[in-house]
Amino acid sequence: MEGVGKSYFGNRVLANVNFSLKKGQILGLVGENGAGKSTLMNILFGMPVIQETGGFEGKIYIDGKEVSFNSPFEALEAGVGMVHQEFSLIPGFTAAENIVLNRESTTYNVLVEAFGDRLRTLDRVEIRKRAETAIDTLNVDLHPDMCVSEMPVGHKQFTEIAREIDKKRTRLLVLDEPTAVLTETEAAILLKSMKKLADLGISIIFISHRLQEILDICDTIIVLRDGEVVREFVPEKTDLMSIASAMVGRSIQGQSQRTQEDADRTSGEIILRVENLWVDMPGETVRDVNLEVHKGEIFGIGGLAGQGKLGIGNGIMGLYPSGGTVTFDGDVVPLNDPMAPLSLGIAAVSEDRRGVGLLLEEPIAWNIIFTALQVQNRYLRSILGGLVRIRDAAAIRDCAKHYIQALEIKCVSERQRVVELSGGNQQKICLAKAFALDPKLLFVAEPTRGIDVGAKKVVLDTLREYNRKNRATVVMISSELEELRSICDRIAIIDEGRVAGILPATAPSTEFGLLMLGKVQKTRERVTA
Amino acid sequence: MGRIKSFIEAAGWPRIIIALFLLGLFVIAPFVEVRVDASISDTLVRFGMNGVMVLAMVPMVQAGCGLNFGLPLGIIAGLLGAVTSVELELTGILGVLAAMCIAIPIAVLFGWAYGLLLNRVKGGEMMIATYVGFSSVAFMCIMWLLLPYKSPSMVWGYAGTGLRTTISVDGYWIRAISDFLSFQYGKYFYFPTGMFLFFALLCFLMWLFMRTKIGTAMTTVGSNPDYARASGVNVDRMRTISVILSTVLGAVGIIVYEQSFGFIQLYMGPFTMAFPAVAAILIGGASVNKATILNVVIGTILFQGILTMTPSVINSIVQTDMSEVVRIVVSNGMILYALTRVVKVKSR
Is the separation of the CB atoms in A439 and A261 below 8 Å? Predict the structure, then answer.
């Protein structure tokens, strides 16, 4: 690959990526969420999303020939196989059937004369033989007649890989986090079979968050950060620490800098205590979280996607089934009841802006005041001699105008529908909605996701200012570690639904990186064992 | 030109086309010897009769439960109130009020159960609602025969038990609401002031309700249930309240309809009552999840206007009596047209 670059809607996600991969080698690709790994692989595999958003820059060569795939079929034709994070298997079919799907071995029958080749009979014996060969190549214990829906995840993963192997032309295999769903033993088997495949002359690009695996089997390691290749390592000459720091340590130009005043801040008594919290949020399961947040601080919660950091906020706000003890300002917060935390003075800005955070079809003013109206009975006025209370249109307008001005929301008027605004301005409305509640504690989840750099800075500055002026406590949940480090006082890193560690924001990024990758805990366990 | 364009955009092409068609019918009417004053009077009376039942659509649409195809359930509650009032031999405005007072608690009960059911079928409310309406009508066909009503003006003459299909309220409370402050102008023009005042009052109450805390929460539930939940609103409760409200308005609506019409229609009477109401509110410009009082008023005038005018004008043109056939063709055609608009709004 040479000088590969890609931008989505003017938002640059990849810039000038160069690397080469020799026949029969394994290349490890690592990077944080959003570093550009998936985009890079989508380009390589010719996914339609790339074409739809304006193609890419740079050139890709396979065997010295320049290639540019317009669809995954062309990529398959050229011998590029890919195993995605999500399985693409047919649950009701057996392993063998899935492996040979659409490339079945067939035999002749009479109907072919009349209706053509599409009606050839399946050659079950041959199919089984091919499946067995592919599975043997992997050297795993997988029965070809097993139905996919009855398989454990590990076997599904093997089936996917076996399918790629069965394709005779496959010369380059991309594995996107294949070990994420596997147990340790299964992962070890997979790694062994990957080595075997490499020996057979198939080149492999291996994406993983488990750095140890990468170190164990790769011939070269490339670290992506913010869409650029930051370092290339050879495993023999490096260690976990240097890879981890290369992954997370990004230059913090243009980001809001910490000031001396920040360093001198002292936090008050404990305002929020979370004990043994579990939250059943799909994809973000929280298993056992214990936290203490002090009054007046900005507390960061970080970690890789899917480890449960988003579940904490949503669980406390009562949006997903949860259990454990949450104490706020001396009161126990009843869980599984969205009204309870709101009325105690906890507000939240959801990470799912368009799904949960906004009424897209309603005017800006409604979006801002609705929660305050419901929870605190504000913006209502009495009519008919106090018999009924209806919305106070004037107060609502004034409030909306105030926030539009204060947060520099770009809009025609407070009556404009929210769906017409840009992502950054929508996010500001979500903040305004939370501020209108005058919360003592504010959860902010992924406040800068999907908005441009300028708006990012405004959002972060607004949060910081709100914290300073109103003495409000802010809990910020974000996947972007640098962002957390720029405004938080302390940061907790969540790994596999548990707190891996809490560090002051000034701690070196390497330590955060290690926490994220779950390395610290494991070494500790090993020590105790 | 710009002003015309913005007016068309605000009103929407369907309404402009239908309004022009209705206007055209009124223009043709005198030439085919259909009296315009009588026609206008008819249209107004029909508007008053149906208005409340169209208004009943608003709460459920606003709460995201879709169009209330289960309106027959509310109508049945209204019918129970009406026959009980006749059984008690109550007359005049007292009779109507008694009918409503009996009907409303029944409607609340029905609406509550109906709401619980709809909360279990989120996303498929309209389909389920249609069958709730149909099956409740079928069930009541049995009940009308079995319920122990005794009034000689209501039961079958030869058996002495079981209610008749059509019961006249003449002598009890015919036009009890309509005739309040009503006036006759010339031989053909009758204006049911009382019915209009009553409809206006209900519209005002609905307008007021939609601006209270609960009404606001209800609209939000319809707009984005997840947002509402995150703001501490009990989504299922709001939906149930909207269904109860809709059912109660259906009950009140049918009593208003009967006192003007002069008859209580039992058995299969309520079967298709939901469709004209649904069609009217859709023609008025409501979508499946947004409806205003203005949609109700405009839609009812247009729908009932067309329904009154088309048969009489066409009858006079072709010189045969096929008014009933034309009425059925026109009303079902309009419903079909209105329902195709539902799809458009969804896919926008």
Answer: no
Quick check: is B147 in a domain?
yes
Compute the C-alpha angle B53/B56/B60, nearest 5°.
150
b (16+ CB within 10 A) / e for A315-340: bbbbbbebebebebbeeebebeebbb
pLDDT of res. B238? 93
Residue B347 to chain A, least CA–CA distance (Å): 15
Residue B1 lies in a domain: no
Cα B136 from Cα B144, distance rounded (Å)? 12
A260: pLDDT strictly greater than 70: no
Query: Nearest chain B Cα to A317, which residue?
Result: B230
Considering only CB atoms, which chain B residues are within 8 Å of A389? Answer: 212-213
- Calculate how close chain A gets to B207, using CA atoms only, in Å: 10
Tell me whether residues B230 and A358 touch, CB distance under 8 A: no
Please give the structure tokens belonging to residue B282: 């859709």
How large is the average pLDDT for residues A494-511? 84
The full set of domains in chain A, from first to last, is: 86-152 (no CATH), 260-528 (3.40.50.300)
Residue B45 has pLDDT above 60, yes or no: yes
> Domain count of chain B?
1
Among A132-146, B30-44, B78-92, where is mean pLDDT lowest?
A132-146
Q: Which domain holds residue B197?
A: 13-181+190-343
**pTM (two decimals):** 0.73
Cα nearest neighbour of B289 on chain A: A361
Asked if the structure places residue B337 within a domain, the reply is: yes
Dihedral angle, C-alpha B327, B332, B337, B341, nearest 10 °: 130
Per-residue confidence (pLDDT) for residue A9, from 0 to 100: 42
Q: For residue B348, is it within any domain? A: no
Do the chains contact at B212 and A338, CB–CB below 8 Å?
no
Whether residue A390 and residue B208 make contact (CB cut-off 8 A), yes or no, is: yes
pLDDT in tens, A331-352: 888 888 888 888 888 888 888 8
Chain B residues whose beta carbon lies within 8 Å of the beta carbon of residue A430: none
Whether A374 sits inside 8 A of B231 (CB atoms) is yes
Chain mean pLDDT for chain A? 79
For residue B233, the chain A residues in CB contact (below 8 A) are 338, 374
B-chain residue closest to A368, CA distance: B231
The answer to whether residue A520 scores a pLDDT higher than 60 is: no
CA dihedral A405, A408, A414, A415 (to 10 degrees): 170
Mean of pLDDT values over B275-303: 87
B290 → chain A, closest CA residue? A361
| CATH number of the domain enclosing B20 | 1.10.3470
How far off is chain A from B224, nearest CA to CA, in Å?
Answer: 6
Which residues are registered as beta bridge partners of A51?
none
Task: Give the minimum alpha-carbon distance from B199 to chain A in angstroms, rounded to a whole number.
Answer: 20
